Amino acid sequence: MAWEYEARHTIEALRSGIPSRAIGRHFSEALADLLSSINETLDRVVEAQKSEAAVISGKYGEGKTHLLNTVWELANRRN
Fold first, then answer.
1. Residue 20 structural domain
2. How deeply is 55 buried, as exposed, middle or buried, from its count of CB atoms within 10 A (0-12, 13-18, 19+)?
3. Whose CA is closest to 67, among 32, 16, 17?
4. Using CA atoms, how far apart are residues 75 and 42, in angstroms rounded to an integer?
5. 18-52 pLDDT tens trace
6. Domain count, the chain
7. Residue 27's closest CA among 15, 19, 36?
8. Alpha carbon of 38 to those of 49, 55, 61, 72: distances in Å?
9. What's the pLDDT at 17?
10. Cα 58 to Cα 74: distance, rounded to the nearest angstrom
């Protein structure tokens, strides 16, 4: 039953066009190289216990919020 809820949530999030942290991980295959680099950075941050910063820029609809939601999920898994 839990997968039904997640499936419905995914469909509703896609239908509404509102970025969702819950579904970002399912649609990030095109970002493999970038996510690999981000994972390396997150590993470095965890090991050094020192934060780093980055700037993400792009035009409307290019996936900035999607990327940030995916990064949030990757970082959250490390806690």
1. 2-77
2. exposed
3. 32
4. 7
5. 777 666 666 667 778 888 999 999 999 999 999 99
6. 1
7. 19
8. 16, 12, 21, 11
9. 72
10. 21
